[in-house]
Each structure stands twice: as C-alpha cells, then as structure tokens.
Amino acid sequence: MLGFLKNPIVVTAEINMNLVALTVIGLISRLWGLSYPRAVVFDEVYYGQFVSLYMKRIFFVDDSGPPFGHMLLALGGYLGGFDGNFLWNRIGAEYSMNVPVWSLRLLPALAGALCVPLAYQILVELQFSHCAALGAALLILLENSLITQSRFMLLESILIFFILLAVLSYLKFYNLQRHSSFSGSWWFWLLLTGVACSCAVGVKYMGLFTYMLLLTIAGLHFWHMIGDQNLSNVSLMCHFLARGLALIIIPVAMYLSFFYVHLTLLYRSGPHDQIMTSAFQASLEGGLARITQGQPLEVAYGSQITLRNVLGKPMQCWLHSHTNTYPIRYENGRGSSHQQQVTCYPFKDVNNWWIVKDPGMQQLVVSNPPRPVRHGHIVQLVHGITTRYLNTHDVAAPLSPHSQEVSCYIDYNISMPAQNLWRVEIVNRESDTDVWKTILSEVRFVHVNTSAVLKASGFIGASLPEWGYRQLEVVGEKLSKGYHQSMVWNVEEHRYGKSQEQKEREVELHSPTQMDISKNLSFMAKFAELQWKILTLKNEDTEHKYSSSALDWVTMDTNIAYWLHPTSGAQIHLLGNVVTWASANVAALVYACLSLWYLIRRRRKIYDIPEDAWQLWVSAGGICVGGWAVNYLPFFLMEKTLFLYHYLPALTFQILLIPIVLQHLGNHLCRSLLLKSMFSALIVAWFSSVYLVYHTFSPVTYGEPSLSVTELKDLRWKDSWNILIRKQ
C-alpha cells in the first residue's frame, strides 16, 4: 500500500531562461537608483496631490481619467507608510523625510520593467522566432523614453503594462482555441484579457483604444468561427457567451468596482466636492453634510430653503436677492423695472434663503401636519430677509435682452402688477404626484403668466456690473429655447419655518439647520454623477512650455525637461532613442508598402509568400500597426494640451513591429546565403547603434552623472530639443 514511497517525488519544470534574464535586466534598468532625484519630478506634482488626498481620505475629482491608476500610486504610498503630509506646489521641490519616494515610484517602475518580458512573449505568441522576440524585448529595454516615464510617479508605464498584458492574454487564449477550448488555461487567458483591458481603461481612458482593438479582433475571429461547419450551434453560442462574459461583462463590473473602492476610500469632504450636486456633497463626511444632516426631506408650504443651481459651472451659486434695485437705466440706455435685484451668488449667505408660500394663504410657517409641495403645484417664493416675492415680467434682463428680467417685486403704484406665481416641475420625478424633496429633487420654476423658466444665465461667463456686485445674472428664459441644466435647481438647506413675525424669522434664518432626516445616495447614483463630471469637466487648457502636437511625436521633434538639479548640470528629460524611433517609422512604412504590394499581387493570383506566412504577416500587422494607429490617430481629434508621453503606448506597438519586419525580410527577401549573412551583419550593426544611443542619452534618462555645458550641447541633436544649460 505504501509502495509509492519507495521512489522520490520528482517535480520537473521548464524555465525559459531568456524570459528570466529579460525580467531581471528589466528590473535593474527601472529600479536602479529609483529614489533619485529626491525631488518632485514633472507631473509628480500633479499625481502627488491625489496620493495625499487618498492618504487623508478626502474626496477629489480628476478630469484626466478614472481612479484606478491613482489608487495604484496611492497603494505605493500606503505600503511606504506615507501620511499624505507634503505640499505638492512646485516641480523640483525637495521631498521631506516623511515621503517614501522609493515606495511611491515602485509600482510604475515594476510595470515598466515587466513590459520587457511581455514584449518577448507577445512575439512568441504571434509565432515569430525567439530571436525576433528577444530583439523586441531588448528594444523596449533600451528605449530611453520608456525608462524615464517608468521611473517616476506617473501612469504611462502602468497603462502600457496593462495594454501589453491584455494583448498577450488574448493571443494565448486564441492560440489555445485551436486545440483546447473551454479548458482551464483557455478560461484563464480569456478572463485575464478582460481584466487587463478593464485595468487599462481604469488607469487612463487611452486604454479604451486598445480595448476596442481587441474587441474588434475578437469579433473578427468569432465571425470566422461562425463559418466553421464542424462547430454546432450550441458550441457557437457557448463561445459567444464566454466572450461576452469575459470581454464585456467582467470589464464593466471591474470598472464599476474601481469607482466603488474610490468612493469608499474617499468619504471626507474636500475642496473638489463643491462641483458635485448637493446630494453628493451631503453624502460626504464634513462640509455640506454637517449643515444638511437631519434636514426635513419633504418641502412643504412654509419651508425655508436655499436653492442651488444644478449646473454648478463655472462655479456653484445660489438664488439670491438683496435690498439694492436694478438701475433705472443701464449703460447702453435701456430701461429697467427698478425692482429689487435677484442674482445667483457663489457664496453661502443669509440672503440666499427663500420661503415657499401657498398663494391662497398668508401664513409663512409650516402647518401641522406639513402640507408637502408636489410636482405641478403653484407656489410663491418669498425672499426671507426682505419678504418680497420672486417676480418676472416682460422687461428685458440687464445682460440678456432677449430674456426676461427676474426681480423681487416692489409696488411703485404704477401700471406694473405683480406676477409672482411659479409652477414647480420636478425634472427627475418618477410620477406626476412626486413630492418636492430636499437635495434629491431637481426642479424647474415655470412662470405662470409668461411660461418663462427661472434660469441662471451667468454661466456663459457674464456677471453683473458694479451695481450688481459682480454677481451672476438670473433671467426668465422661454421654454421654446430648449432645456439646459442652468434652468434646474435643487433645495440644499432646508428647515420648517416656525416664526410668523419678521424679526423672529430673521433670527431663525441666521440659525443653523439641524433636524432628524438623513439623505443617502446609492452607489450607482454617485457613480453616474462622478463619471459624468469626469467626462464633462474641462479645465482651461493653457499652452504649456513643453506641450506639443501629434505631428511632432513621430519624428521626436520635441522633448520634455522633467527635472533640473538646483546647482549642477544634472537633469532628466523625456527623450526617446533616436535610432529606435526612426527604425519604428521605417518598419511601419515597409510594412505598409509590402502589404500593398502583396495585396496587389495576390489580386493577380501571384503568391510571393506561403499562405501561412501571409496569415502571420496580417495578424502581426493587425496587432502592431492596429495598436499604433488606435493609440495615435485619435489625438488629432482631441482638443486638449498634448505632451510627448501621450505617444508612448503607440510607440510601444510600433517598436514591436521592427523585429517582425526584420524577420520577414530575412526569411522571404534574403534568399541567398550571402544576402542572409550581410543582412545579419547589418542587424548587428544597427542594434549596436541602438545601444550606443541609449548609453549616450542615459545621463539625461537617469539624471546622473552630471554633464558639463559642452556635453549638454552635444546632446542637442535637434534644434527643437530644449536641453537646459545654465548661464555661466
């Protein structure tokens, strides 16, 4: 029974030493001297702020993309024990001792290092030789721009890692498709494809380009499967569902999970939450939540409320009035009603309070029990401090002459009667009997007499002159001009009024609101709002010293100075390996020309290369040329400030194309032994030049050793490069 113990238990494993060696060398090239320089390098000043906010659990919004990449950078800070206390206010600032520089830069460096073995494996899975795969990995290893970008607290190396992982996973899955469908390894690589795609998109929206490419390739492969008569309908349906699960459902679920973790971690109010809706702000600890916690949920006749404009751009503001009136005549000669001004004021103020009044009753307090206001009800809005009624009439607004003036009515005993009835329309209602709710309801106020809608028009950039204290204009806009978010308001602060006398009411309006109902947004509601803000929030794009156009990238006519030593000539630049960039462009051109030549010849029934070589050529081009195109061409359509590092994902695909073209030329165009020998010698000479350029520019890749003025001038190979030289 125990006879199996007579022989030793032996475990055998195949180890690809090429892969091991490439991984080790990649780690050395990216991790060596990682803490140097111990100063803020270029966009570390930007991402570092978000890491600090993660450490302090303070909510923020970054319009550059989803939160997964930021969370990975924050993970490095967490592992290093970072407390978030550092002022990220300028590039070049020395890090204090509490900042774990090595830990913060670790994950981008690891991602950059692992791109080297990933490049090797991708070419192997594309059915190219190990020699070609080794060449691709070494080109990634010796690419100065990829080294620089991966050694700092930046996101591009992480993005490229997940992009390459997604490509490799899909290729492994596809190769297993032929002989072991639905096996454990088949499922593993298919699922990993979806996970890697989701992670790439979660780091930066640029990852969406490669995700769409892989979905397209997967769709084409499945289309070919449909024509396979050996597969039953049931089998085809299983394949379709498996791909749908792994490549669509799981990535979407993971994408949502990134935001779930993000919102779970960042539960405290901060400077960025002011651009969010009142409901979102109230869900955060501190800030608005301290004010609104426990307010009455249902708005009733007699409620005292503040009304915040939902749009919130370029700044949040509240419906406001004060005792000052519109001037009798404006600067352009037009006349006004000389009524009390109504504006949108970007600060909390006692003059932001309004009372919801029933037009059929005189009382300004909430009855017992409260009578809630519902969708479609007619109300009057009484300004809390001045007790004048919100009014609009057929008088041109001060800055928007095609819209109606909005005022608080003053009776001058002239032929201008009050027109102060407003219909409450709940925009996000579920039924026509919905109750108007604090924070949650988004409402429009439609003027009964003129059908004009209360609108904050100052969001087009116009503010009132000195007589209006530079506050934002509020107008009555005709519904025929279309719907806009500046027409929508929500109740932010709310209390049930108890004081009928004006003096007592003024004291009540100045007191804080505290009652007994809390409001919580669901995760999906918070996700939808945050996602919309990320997609639509645009910071003003200003011209940057190192910004560039997409046309500059292909020929590397630009660079970025990342860091300059305060006293010596040591500096770090984002500069690529000139030989590699030029070779990548030549490889793309050769691929395009050869493909066109082959297609024309094949159309004439002339086959220059075997069918399997042609299929290999096409599939490699679909990945490499397709990857370059989808990661580069969209930038010509983008209206944003662009930098050289935006080109790095596209460049990575283009680099992978170089050994593919070289192997193809060697196998199919160099037919004689002499030509093959000469071609091999040229490759060795060319690769030596790649290493020579890498070594030449390594001082500005790693930031050391410090170079003299003469040496720095010698590195300026193009007049458009901005190499920093100190004045003597």
Automatic annotation (TrEMBL):
Pathway membership: Protein modification; protein glycosylation
PROSITE patterns according to UniProt: MIR (PS50919)
Recorded topology in the membrane: Multi-pass membrane protein
Catalytic activity: a di-trans,poly-cis-dolichyl beta-D-mannosyl phosphate + L-seryl-[protein] = 3-O-(alpha-D-mannosyl)-L-seryl-[protein] + a di-trans,poly-cis-dolichyl phosphate + H(+); a di-trans,poly-cis-dolichyl beta-D-mannosyl phosphate + L-threonyl-[protein] = 3-O-(alpha-D-mannosyl)-L-threonyl-[protein] + a di-trans,poly-cis-dolichyl phosphate + H(+)
UniProt entry tagged with the keyword Chloroplast: no
Subcellular location: Endoplasmic reticulum membrane
InterPro entries tied to this protein: ArnT-like_N (IPR003342), MIR_dom_sf (IPR036300), MIR_motif (IPR016093), PMT-like (IPR027005), PMT_4TMC (IPR032421)
Keywords tagged on the record: Endoplasmic reticulum, Glycosyltransferase, Membrane, Repeat, Transferase, Transmembrane, Transmembrane helix
Gene3D superfamilies named among the record's database cross-references: 2.80.10.50
SMART domains the UniProt entry points to: MIR
Keyword DNA damage set for record: no
MIR domain: residues covered: 296-359, 370-427
Cellular component GO terms held in the UniProt record: endoplasmic reticulum membrane
The protein, known as: Protein O-mannosyl-transferase 1
Lineage summary: Eukaryota, Metazoa, Chordata, Craniata, Vertebrata
